[in-house]
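User: For a benchmark we're assembling, each entry needs the component sequences followed by a predicted structure for the full assembly. Here are entry 17's components. Please fill in the structure.
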Amino acid sequence: MPPSEHAEALTGNQSLIKRINSAAILRLVRQEAGLSRADLAKRSGLTKSTVSLLVQELIDEGWLCESEAPVSNAVGRRPTPLQLDPSRLALLGAEIGVDYLNVVACNLQGKLLGSCQQPYSPSDLGSTLTALAGLIAQQDASLCAQGWRVLGISVGVPGTVDVHGHRVGMVPNLGWHHQDIEQPLCKALKRAGVRQSPVKVLNEANAAALSEYVFGTGAQTNSLVYLSMGIGVGGGIVLGDRLHLGHDGTAGEVGHTVLQLDGPPCRCGSRGCAETFISQRAVSLDITGTPDPVLPIDELARRVAGGDATAVAAARRAGRYLGMLMQNICNMLDPAVLVLGGPMVQLGPVFLDAARECFAGLQARYAFHTTEVRHCRFGINACAVGAAGAVLHEALMA
Amino acid sequence: MPPSEHAEALTGNQSLIKRINSAAILRLVRQEAGLSRADLAKRSGLTKSTVSLLVQELIDEGWLCESEAPVSNAVGRRPTPLQLDPSRLALLGAEIGVDYLNVVACNLQGKLLGSCQQPYSPSDLGSTLTALAGLIAQQDASLCAQGWRVLGISVGVPGTVDVHGHRVGMVPNLGWHHQDIEQPLCKALKRAGVRQSPVKVLNEANAAALSEYVFGTGAQTNSLVYLSMGIGVGGGIVLGDRLHLGHDGTAGEVGHTVLQLDGPPCRCGSRGCAETFISQRAVSLDITGTPDPVLPIDELARRVAGGDATAVAAARRAGRYLGMLMQNICNMLDPAVLVLGGPMVQLGPVFLDAARECFAGLQARYAFHTTEVRHCRFGINACAVGAAGAVLHEALMA
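Assistant: Structure for entry 17:
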């Protein structure tokens, strides 16, 4: 809702005021655990009494809890530090991978409460959603039995999703094209016995970006780009505390930015895309000389670690192009943080050092700072944990 | 101010409510001239009586005016269309170019009320600002004599500017490095006799992006990328109705995204930057075989238009790389609109058709839409008009 609409509504709508202010308090505590009520009043601009009232409600509802007050010899009552309550509200996140389904349950701090994976073969959308709903139902039941309240469910998919999260555009590795997904997913969940919860669908790299943004970062990071490198290459962009989806939801498709004019053909129909240099498919092709089958990432990592000359050269070459892509992302977007994730990071220093070296060599001299580059914190769970994070993010951005 | 802070402030602060709601009304009218009070009530969510009160105040203050009511034979009073008042409030915008200073005065609809240019040789910051302040004072005096009220002054510079607009980072063509600019500019304006107005400094491509966003676009465009191609190549990015400045203000430096690993050396210290393929400098080098002097754009355009084979080949090559850059921008950001601007567009169809052809050939198959590509509307005044637009933008985003 744009500010204007707030303004008038707010003068007469106490419950809307409360919701907006509560979300703001939660955002502050998420950014920096340990803030006291007085800190929150100072940072939010709200009065201390308003903050106290809202904090009490958030504690009652399971959002916040008081952590241990720091021991001190000073006279007087010490302020009580607050944090997101890790013990009552749960988030469900899922990933539809190319050859597996993954469902995780997290608490508000991003700690894993449970997970289940299932290998599967690419299939039609309906069967996939039925299988996924079964796994979600399993986690949901387990959470309920332990007394958790589930806030919502979110699913990451390896392809483009429209800005509303209603439809997938193209999911090349699963063969889905322009199909409704949100409604079929809701129905499948209902059939599987999952009680009505908010459901959200998003691109896998966007989900992974939220894993880092919602659970992995400190107070200062309001912009972040996540690079998801596996069979393909995708990207997720958080700018100004929001996922940047673009005009129609396809922003962040950095795997199909072009790194070489008239370069190698890409599955997308174009040529010279980043994906044709940096992906598992590209490294495998470099080593075997044939596009199929793509060697498993474990196999590639083993060969590189073992010093196989062809594999090392292929990983280094991919790394150099990764450095080029990193530079292009940073020059275009100037994010605070760039996160490297996906199976390809298993190629280790041979790949990643080549990337950092190339990136450093390309740095322009005009920048005020250098973007912080770091590795993904949630490994193979990045997408599913980020999908869970999307549920929390949605609630906090209310 | 984040929503939370609004909420409480608003309950007790009628003047803040009024300011926010007034800005919202102005944004709606800017997006679509001709809206009636009833339309505004519907779109803003405000009551009709509130809208009527605010509109009357905005008319009294010179922001809005009523245009002719459409003639109709229907019974009853016709709603009166509203528009930004073109006749009372003025905006001053300036550009510090590489070899010229340009100052324009615009009305709220972006119509030029006056302008003055002055050639100059790159000089130290102080002398440049003194010369610029003289030109601004001239325009300011002329506006005042005609009864205009000046809302503010904004200046575009050909280099990086920090997020606050206080300092320049690197302005390679003028030899400025990490210097304060806002305070010296304010002082120079004061010395030149310009009455106190808000002053803002921004990167030239960011300013040019605002020229298109604030004055050139329709209701549906909330994301836009502007490509400024001249001696160098810069970019300005508008996302979610705001300039995207990045973590430290250097976002949009698309001229230094890398289009070829180990490519030609760039002035920035890197290699293979877009600027080494797409700029006036690149085309000139391609034609003459020497980096200095860079042929004037008129000379390049004349040779290309005249069918000089070397010049045509150079323009085509630059165009192909422009297509590649366009593709990279669209894949990363998915903007609604991409605007091509700067002196290089004078190379005409040979250059631009090559770009569009290459861009079309690189389009991936997964997109939901194709970004609208169009040419800059304000020609050589793009930066100065956009700087003037920045003044209006700042007021409307209050």
